[in-house]
Design brief:
Number of domains: 2
Number of helices: 14
Order of helices and strands: EHEHEHEHEHEHEHEHEHEHEHEEHHH
Number of strands: 13
Mean pLDDT: 95
């Protein structure tokens, strides 16, 4: 008999947790699990991937932080669906999903903690601690995330680690010359990528500053910032104020990131905190060296000096120095890239991630 699972997440945009949930829902064994997905707030482009995989998707339409109507719609949906297990992802879905599940008599709850979250206020952490007592299992995607939440009072014995999984990126169908022509860049341009939401956590200003430092010693480095978010206008103004518009390019959201990533010479991650960055993993799986902040989650991926380099948060000079070292030494770049690709292939595959979740579900279902 198939076991019915309901995955609840705020949206289906191309974020890290959303990608992992979509990969999991689409690849859980179909002869064993009947998987459904519920987007609490809104849909997004990943809905097409779920539809292609035959996974039913429902959007609740939550509009405010405190939205009783959305709670009742979610509760009604759970009552109709009658899942045996609910798995929630990200704080809003964790709170609404577990509360509605408990109200409907669902006693097997899995909560996903995806990031070190210093932004959470006292009342949000209080909700986490209260619901943790009624949650069957809590899954962190890295040891750093687990340690953060244990320090915040969540029960250590209920938290286990299941790392993210990444698919190896195929060779880009576009040549480097075609990519450079599309972006209007010179043939000798060296491409540094930064992928993520434009908001304070990502510290994109540090990247722009480091690009300005690199411009002093070399004229071929172009920083490609892929993503959108609430800081877009502010970051555009900052780039223009430091007069580096010719070297820093905002590409916005792109559906062809898999085509672009293999052409990066280096990927940057300047975040102040993360869980386990999908952008870093995808770059490593394409054999791209990574220079990233030395923070929990990221240092589980990047082995300093072997698959890339780590630098202290905010140290723009070291970011520029390490990047210049890679760009100046093709043999080093190839060695780092090969080691990065091998690390992803050995320890962070989608198949490993899906099997770990399937084993967890089997363990807690009767």
């Amino acid at each position: 008999m198939k076991r019915r699972i309901l995955e609840i997440i705020p949206t289906l945009v191309r974020g890290g947790a959303e990608k992992q949930m979509t990969l999991l829902a689409a690849r859980l064994p179909r002869d064993e699990f009947d998987v459904h997905v519920c987007a609490l707030t809104a849909g997004g482009p990943l809905a097409a991937d779920l539809d292609a995989a035959g996974v039913p998707t429902t959007v609740i339409g939550k509009r405010w932080k405190l939205d009783p109507g959305a709670y009742w719609r979610l509760k009604s949906h759970i009552a109709r669906l009658q899942p045996e297990l609910i798995h929630t992802w990200i704080f809003a879905a964790d709170a609404y999903g577990r509360a509605a599940g408990l109200a409907c008599g669902v006693r097997r709850l899995v909560c996903g903690l995806r990031c070190v979250d210093p932004w959470k206020s006292g009342w949000q952490l209080a909700i986490d601690r209260y619901l943790a007592r009624q949650t069957t299992r809590i899954v962190a995607n890295s040891p750093g995330v687990r340690e953060f939440y244990v320090r915040k009072g969540l029960p250590a014995e209920r938290i286990e680690v299941i790392p993210n999984g990444v698919e190896p990126l195929p060779p880009s169908p576009a040549t480097r010359a075609e990519i450079l022509a599309e972006l209007g860049l010179p043939a000798d341009a060296r491409l540094v990528g930064l992928v993520g939401r434009l908001w304070p956590q990502k510290r994109v200003k540090d990247a722009i500053w480091a690009a300005d430092l690199l411009k002093v010693i070399r004229k071929d480095v172009h920083l490609l910032i892929v993503g959108d978010g609430p800081q877009r206008q502010q970051l555009w103004r900052y780039r223009d104020q430091v007069e580096i518009r010719d070297m820093v390019h905002f590409l916005g959201e792109r559906g062809d990131l898999a085509q672009l990533t293999p052409h990066f010479d280096v990927l940057w991650s300047t975040s102040g905190y993360e869980g386990q960055s999908n952008a870093v993993m995808e770059a490593m799986s394409a054999g791209v060296p990574v220079v990233a902040t030395n923070i929990p989650g990221t240092r589980d991926l990047v082995v300093d000096g072997q698959t890339g380099y780590l630098f202290p948060v905010g140290n723009r000079a070291m970011l520029a120095k390490q990047t210049n070292r890679i760009l100046d030494d093709p043999d080093l770049a190839r060695r780092l890239g090969r080691a990065a690709l091998q690390r992803m292939a050995d320890q962070f595959t989608v198949e490993q991630m899906v099997e770990r979740y399937a084993e967890l579900y089997r363990r807690i279902l009767p």
